[in-house]
Amino acid sequence: CQRDFKRCVTTLLLLAKQSDWTAPGRWEQALQAWSSGPNTKSSWRYLSPALAAAPQIFLEQIQDSLTWWLDAVARVSTSEPARLMSLISLSLDFQKTRTSSPPTKTEDAFGQPAGRVVQALFNWWFRQGLQDGQGISPEVKVILEDVADTSVGNFAHGRLIMCANVVALYRLDSAWTERHVIALFDWTRDK
């Protein structure tokens, strides 16, 4: 996929056009390959429309590679932010029913899809030229509020990423951060 980007993209798009979603392994290989290197931005431009229209069951099958790719894309592309937010939200929805061990350190959060997509959200958002006190944009706020829901155990990885960004969040919107993020620092809550 790295050596022959054009052929790989063309093949995947042809499969998508034919509504052939029976080869998740091929998509996983491509997305993993394009999670680094020079083709990340181009792969977003060509493949994101197809992935946004893909069946949810297919997207759930490729979650690990998809979330690595979304994190990489968020670092280099600002095109089609609504599509990026949609794929991030959908990826988080898939995580609601999965189980994983709670993170014990920040690095653990990056190893799980919920942590990766929240990091992707921050990667994209921090590239938007934020200003102190501007507030949190509605499309970001709705995702972060979902992640802050402590009844979803698998979102602990995403909450850890949120907490790691508490200073930036506080500078943008102190009232929201106190209500949704600083409240997560209550060590006695589970006792």
Structural class: mainly alpha
- Total beta-strand segments: 0
Tell the overall outline. globular
Strand content: under 5%
Task: Count helical runs.
Answer: 12
Describe the structure.
By secondary structure, the chain is an all-alpha fold. 65% of the residues lie in helices and 0% in strands. It is built from twelve helices and no strands. The chain has helices at residues 5-17, 24-33, 40-53, 56-61, 63-76, 81-95, 106-110, 113-126, 138-147, 156-164, 166-172, 174-180.
Topology:
Layout: H1 5-17, H2 24-33, H3 40-53, H4 56-61, H5 63-76, H6 81-95, H7 106-110, H8 113-126, H9 138-147, H10 156-164, H11 166-172, H12 174-180
Brief descriptors of the model:
191 residues, mainly alpha, 12 helices, globular
Kindly summarize this structure in a few lines:
This protein is mainly α. The chain is built from twelve helices and no strands.
